[in-house]
Amino acid sequence: MTRIVIIGGGPAGYEAALVAAQLGAQVTVIERDGMGGASVLTDCVPSKALIASAEAMTAVRDSKVLGVQGAEPAGVGLDLVSVNHRVKGLAMAQSADIHARLESEGVRIVKGSGRLADDVPGLAAHEVEILDADGRVVDEIEGDVVLIATGADPRVLPGSEPDHERILDWRDVYDLEEMPEHLVVVGSGVTGAEFASGYLEAGVPVTLVSSRDRVLPGEDADAAEVLEEVFQSRGGRITQKGRAAAVRRTEKGVLVELTDGRTVEGSHALMTVGTVPNTAGLNLESHGVQVTEAGHVVVDRVSRTTVPGIYAAGDVTGVFQLASVAAMQGRIAMWHALGEAVAPIRLKTVAANVFTHPEIATVGVQEKSLADDADIDVVRLPLATNARAKMSDLRAGFVKLFTRRSTGVVVGGVVVAPGASELVLPITLAVTKGLTAADLANTFSIYPSLSGSITEAGRRLMGVDELS
Ligand SMILES: Cc1cc2nc3c(=O)[nH]c(=O)nc-3n(C[C@H](O)[C@H](O)[C@H](O)COP(=O)(O)OP(=O)(O)OC[C@H]3O[C@@H](n4cnc5c(N)ncnc54)[C@H](O)[C@@H]3O)c2cc1C
Ligand SMILES: NC(=O)c1ccc[n+]([C@@H]2O[C@H](COP(=O)([O-])OP(=O)(O)OC[C@H]3O[C@@H](n4cnc5c(N)ncnc54)[C@H](O)[C@@H]3O)[C@@H](O)[C@H]2O)c1
């Protein structure tokens, strides 16, 4: 029986464990915190649960235009203590469900930190030491295959170290007992944009310190522009081209000093300036496992590292930091290691969503990476023209579709709308299965529905041939 040792119990680790157990391997998962990893306990799941409460606030406040009475902004508020209580409880419950599921599949779960400990490099099997919370080695186990799935932690900006009271990282926010009077979010990547949007919706004045001239530099530029407009129309402030040099505590709160001399004051600062992979202390380099300058483990498309028998998956690899990608990399690693037929990961088919208001969902090729003479047709349909959107008073947002001009095959798309994370699925399916604009156009969508804009985009891009 193949012995699999997995270090880290996030989506990369636990999904890998499920696949390996299903294929009859003997599986051990070493996890220092709790099953589900940072994704479930502190990052993805809690943030989306918090955002769900903020969205409920928005739905109530925005209902006046639909004729609802008594929902004036001053009369609607969030009870942050009970929201945080709910968020943490939900994360713990999800973690417990994953723990129970793994145990029911026969996976052994060990609490502690794992690290590679081969005495002799190059052997077919690998030793892994288990350390307790005090750093003492308490056990050693041998695996035929080791999966490194240790995730990533918040990056700390020197001079802006979180004190976890006023200067926070995103894992601290669920311990707040009162709403911040004025939250300064430093960093406008996906994490920063989501928290800035969520807290603003929850009724907190927010300033977003963005180091670029546009928030969400990695996303579709039109989508980022819509998000900025909505954010500012609701009273959010954006400090553009503002790179934080230091964040200090003041008598009343915090002062964010920017590299160009400007300052931003607030009651709390939330640091969202990226992540660092958890590779320290794993003995990777001494075992010949190649890591990049930034510390990410180098893997190929079937999750192999540079050492036979050692695989890596998830945020520790730096390949698209998404729970869905982490899980797929973990599964692929096990299929490959256990001799199953396996297709290398296809990053062009990955769908991603920014959970702001409105949400931004993307899949496949994106406009910013297209050459001027690319063989690509693009259509952009504003939501404002969609009947269902009008009924719900949704004005901001759009559907954008990219097809290959020569074949009509759908190669990418962007949806900016409330619930874009759900709406993007037909486009993702089209990109994954090589469907054409005509396939979308000839698919029945419900009338009236927001997904009608996706089939309509297909019709706009249909070639003349398909009409004849
Ligand atoms: C605020 C936030 C919101 C996000 N929201 C989303 C979202 O909505 N959708 C999405 O797809 N992605 C989201 N992400 C990204 C997603 O959380 C990550 O891509 C995902 O957690 C990666 O999973 P992983 O298994 O690689 O690592 P993790 O989930 O980080 O799990 C790794 C685990 O390994 C443990 N570990 C580390 N070192 C050791 C060791 N030596 N021994 C034992 N255990 C160890 C860690 O404690 C951790 O529990 C979000 C990220 C952030 C920061
Ligand atoms: N919904 C989701 O799927 C979701 C949600 C959150 C995070 N994530 C993923 O997690 C990963 C990490 O996201 P992130 O947003 O934490 O990191 P990031 O690296 O994507 O963004 C960090 C931002 O901070 C900025 N920054 C860095 N130093 C700064 C400074 N001194 N002052 C001001 N700004 C500064 C950077 O320019 C960058 O725009 C990403 O890959 C992201 O996709 C996914």
Automatic annotation (TrEMBL):
The keyword Flavoprotein is assigned to this record: yes
Flavoprotein keyword on record: yes
UniProt xrefs under Pfam families: Pyr_redox_2, Pyr_redox_dim
InterPro entries: FAD/NAD-bd_sf, FAD/NAD-binding_dom, FAD/NAD-linked_Rdtase_dimer_sf, Pyr_nuc-diS_OxRdtase, Pyr_nucl-diS_OxRdtase_dimer
Domain (Pyridine nucleotide-disulphide oxidoreductase dimerisation): residue spans on this chain: 351-457
Domain FAD/NAD(P)-binding: 3-330
Cofactor: FAD
Keywords: FAD, Flavoprotein
Gene3D superfamilies xref list: 3.30.390.30, FAD/NAD(P)-binding domain (3.50.50.60)
NCBIfam families cross-referenced by the UniProt entry: PRK07845.1
Family stated for the protein in its record: Belongs to the class-I pyridine nucleotide-disulfide oxidoreductase family.
The name this protein goes by in its record: NAD(P)H-quinone dehydrogenase
Organism: Blastococcus deserti
